[in-house]
Amino acid sequence: MTAKKGTPRTSRIRSKRRTAAPQLGESAPERLDPSPVAAEPVDRRAPDARPLIVGVGGSAGSLSPLRELLAAVPADCGMAFVVVSHQAATGHSMLPEILAKCTEMPVREITDEIRIEADHVYVEPRGHSVVIRDGTLSLDPVTLRETPHLPIDHFFRALARDQGSHAAGIVLSGTGTDGTLGLAAIRAASGLSLVQDPATAEFDGMPQSAIQARAADFVVSPAETPARLILLRKGIVRADAAPEIAANEVQRILAIMRQHGGHDFSEYRHGTLVRRIARRMQLHGICDPEEYARFLEQSDVEIDALWHDWLIGVSSFFREPDAFQAVESALPELLAGRPAGSPLRIWVPACATGEEAYSIAMLLVEALHRLEQNLQVQVFATDLNPAAIQVARAGRYPEGTAANIAEARLARFCTREDGFYRVKKELRDLVVFAVQDVLRDPPFTRVDLVSCRNLLIYLEQRAQQRLLRSFHYSLNPRGLLLLGSSENATGSEEFFSPLDGHVKIYRRNDSTAPQLSIRWPDAHRESRNAPTGSLPVGARADLANPLSRALAEHFGPPAVLVDAAGGIQHIHGNIGSYLQLPTGRVNVNVVDMAREGLRAPLAAALREAIQSRGAVAERNARLHLDGNRRTIHLKVAQLHEPRFASPMFLVSFEPAERAERKRDHGRKNESNAERSKARRGARMDRELWDTRHDLQGTIDELQATNEELAAANEEVQSANEELQSTNEELQTAKEETQSLNEELHTVNAELTQKLETFERATDDLSNLMNNIEVATIFLDSHLRVMRFTPQARRVAHLIDADIGRPMADLATYVEYPDLLSDAARVIENLHTSEKQVAAPDGSAYLVRIRPYRTARNVVGGAVVTFFDITDAGRSERAQAERVLADRIVDAVREPFLVLDDELRVVRANRAYYRVFGAEQENTRGLLIDELGLHQWSIPILRERLEKALREGVGFDDLEVEIEFPHLARRKLLLNARPLSPGPGMVAELVLLGIQQSSEPKADAAKSGGERP
Fold it and tell me: Are residues 832 and 977 in the same domain?
């Protein structure tokens, strides 16, 4: 069983109900039912009152789904959202203002050391990375050296470490791989990981990366996400509360997994299995373990998901650097004294996706380069998960996995391509990856270093001890064993001695190797043409009884039990001298594992036993071992056991001398000469018989090989043609990519220019809003404040934080109770509304409401403008008063003049013009001394008028005699009254009334003039 702590693994288990096991990328996490739960508010009486903290990450195209997500979340959801996105490092972000319009929860831009509260939305500021410690958000500045900058992974990993099962992560639209490793960390910490459905994403790079890495629990649309979050929030239990799952229910689930997946988790720690089962139940809103077991029986997808949760696999480059420093320090001693070209074998069980195996390979290459040694390095990395092995073989990892690799080492061993890092071929060639169940498959042998970290902690004590014995069997004398920081070799002190107790690195003791009893279930048998299901599940556990009886009855020496295809089912005794694991892909076929000299005789004997249907086949073979040649006697006999679903055969290995002694035991009475002669004859007969059979077998194999080579040659020719065609297609694709790259450069330049234009327009709009002397408020279709000018604060109680709030919640200083209803009417019928309203301070306003139209001519709200018409009203009243005064002056029948403080004529009434025959252009604006022919240039008149202006006291009946051309000489009575702007103020105007004296009537009659 293989597992690593922390990161989920990436493939499906095999099931009898499926046609084939999916490979990486062929399967996706579960798609959420469109309406799995009702989006109802969270019960605040949940056992754990801490808020569920939801990290939301996105890049290009994520704004729209983010707004849709927040709009669907209830305001009292009991959750806190932290939004992390790819933004420019400089400038002001408008994201908080934009999101505030979509949700009733408060939206805050993150400042350093801010405590998270439920029912709030927090937005990452530009130029910073966000981390969380003990529920408090902190900011780290982003430097130019941080390449690549992955803010989503950075925060999600911190969230997983800090909150555990109270964490959730959501990856929205975007390009690249940011968020994949962070989601994996959240999922491994028992949190919830969600990914936007790529079908709804504008850019599906980030969602697809997370799905292919099996880092997501569910794939959902933005509108469906809140329902899944609320389901998780309602089902959260305290971390210290053990889930109530009975042992019989766990056994039932184990049986289901064993039946449909072929994998036995019974040797895993019970607590680990229970926690992972409880997590799956919580994600689906299931409270009854029996109900979950029924759901598991009906869902292959859930079996696959639970299998990956049980594997708990995580791996990263140079994880726990102290351990790798200890390995690097131990390598010189391990490599010392080795002759050039000798093999150096490393085994990394439970390798997950291969980062640890590649890390050790990097250390080996660097150490050999420093020590100037040339050794044949072979790193064997195995894991139970086929899809993880597929990823490891490709050696292609998201950008975030390179965080722990030094820059020089990264440049030497990896290349960057399309948001990923790929391990170079020279390093990949050193590592052989294979699928292996380390608890049941045979181990590698003659190994110098075994690195098995963070696997033992998930196994029961008995399985730990058996695995440690297996590692002792695999290691060469003085070989090294590296365990995880939470593991140890307690109970196996006779096999290992600690070198560094802190790092948990051990050296193999030179004690006798323990006898191994290894079981291989048919689900992992990978022999040539081996049919699956040779042994039923019930019979496999009882193989020891018939095997022991058969060994006692027929043989006694080391033996293996095989099926008709040669696949090994059970091992008895120490067979290391006869069988060995081949390099490359793990193969448990007895013929392929036979050492040099045994393969052909063993194949012939097995073929003879199969064809003879019950007869015992015997062969002698010359074994080449450590430079020596030994004669080995082979026996193959069929076992007749009713419980076996297919024929099984027992193969035993015994030195020929021992077999001869057994045959001679019954011939004690014969003479030595006769016995020697008989032995020689029998031996020659057997050798001749064996030679004939071997030759016939060789001929048959040669013919089959020739046929296979011919077919392979045809396939190679066909593949060569396909490769040529593929090369042409790749060349065409390269040209298209270059063309597309040029277009992208052009589009980028256009977007840059548009961005500059947008920034200038924004600056112009800001200056216009700040300098316009009109109070204006912009409302959206729900009558919430979108924007306002600084002058709007004079008509309403507005602050910057009110953006996004309903206008109904704000107080206004004007007396306009129908403002909101009129605005709603304008939005509905698109007709402009105007009203004059007053303020308590006596000010007057003209309120004009017009529809707010977007660039697409869509009505998105209303624009309310307040024009201050207080001064305009006063001007109109003054003008009206002047008009009224003019009309009153014109209505007076006697001549009348209005003079200013310089005694210039400001106005004369119609009677003056009519009586004295004057014209307006020759009157207005002239000094009184300049009127007519200077008839009004009278010193006493000027003196009396100046005194009236100076002292503010008028005069009456000033008699003067003036001669006019058409009226002759006349006596006039003059009356004057000064006019001042207010009480106690200096007069600015003087009114001069003119009356004709009563004496000169005759002259007036004689001249024919009118009496004024």
Answer: no
Q: Is 237 found in the same domain as 161?
A: yes
Q: What is the CATH number of the domain that holds 131?
A: 3.40.50.180
Structural domain count, the chain: 6
680-689 per-position pLDDT tens digit: 776 677 667 6
Question: Contact 901/952 with Cβ under 8 angstroms?
Answer: no
Consecutive 10-residue runs of the chain (1012 residues): their mean pLDDT?
37 33 37 37 47 89 88 87 82 81 89 87 86 87 61 89 88 87 85 89 87 85 84 57 69 80 76 82 80 83 79 78 87 86 90 89 91 88 87 85 82 84 89 87 87 85 86 88 83 80 81 50 36 38 50 65 85 80 72 82 83 75 72 83 74 72 52 67 70 69 76 76 77 73 70 79 78 86 90 86 87 87 90 87 86 84 88 65 66 81 86 82 85 84 87 85 72 84 68 74 40 34
Cis omega before residue 148 (within 30°)? yes
Question: Is there a single domain that holds both residue 270 and residue 415?
Answer: no
- Residue 581 within a domain: yes
Nearest residue to 163 via CA among 78, 83, 239, 91 = 239
Q: Residue 606, SS3?
A: helix
Beta bridge partners of 975: 993
> H/E element holding 555?
none
- Residue 242 to residue 229: CA distance in whole angstroms: 22
Domain containing 992: what range?
A: 888-1007
Determine the Cα–Cα distance for residues 216 and 28; give it in Å rounded to an integer: 8
- Residue 802, CB-side half-sphere exposure with 13 Å CA sphere: 21
The CATH number assigned to the domain holding 298 equals 1.10.155.10
Q: Cα–Cα distance between 433 and 439 in angstroms, integer? A: 17
What's the CA gap between 374 and 368, in Å, rounded?
Answer: 7
Q: Are residues 847 and 975 in the same domain?
A: no
Cβ neighbours for 542, distance < 8 A, ≥ 6 positions apart: 643
Judge contact between 55 and 82, C-beta under 8 A: yes
What residues contact residue 713 under an 8 Å CB cut-off, 6+ apart? none
Strands 989-996 and 833-838: unpaired
Report the DSSP beta bridge partners of residue 785: 779
Coil/strand/helix, residue 993: strand
Out of 189, 213, 241, pick the residue that ends a domain: 241
* Residue finishing a domain among 462, 481, 508: 508
Q: State how far the Cα of 472 lies from the Cα of 474, in Å rounded to an integer.
A: 5
Give me the amino acid identity at 635.
Answer: K
At 957, give phi and psi (nearest 5°): 55, 45
- What's the half-sphere exposure (Cβ side, CA atoms, 13 Å) at 790? 9
Kindly provide the b/e burial profile for residues 445-478, where b requires at least 16 CB atoms within 10 angstroms of the residue's own CB: eebbbbbbbbbbbbbeeebbbbbbbbbbbbbeee
Token pair of 835 as six digits: 């009203």
- Phi-psi map region of 416: left, alpha, beta (phi>0 left; psi -120 to 50 alpha): beta
CA distance 152 to 171: 9
From CA 256, how far away is CA 487, in angstroms rounded?
30
**Residue 199 domain flag:** yes
CATH number at residue 472: 3.40.50.150
Distance CA 460, CA 273 (A): 11
HEC secondary structure over 57-109: EECCCCHHHHHHHHHCCCCCCCEEEEEEECCCCCCCCCHHHHHHCCCCCCEEE
Contact residues for 681 (Cβ-Cβ < 8 A; gap 6+):
none
Residue type at position 155: F
The answer to whether 353 and 213 are in contact (CB under 8 A) is no
Question: Using CA atoms in the order 459, 461, 467, 473, what is the torsion angle rounded to 10 degrees?
Answer: 170
- Rounded Cα distance between 829 and 324, Å, is 73
Catalytic residues: 59, 86, 178
Residues in the chain: 1012
Largest CA distance in the chain: 201
**What is the CATH classification number for the domain harbouring 958?**
3.30.450.20
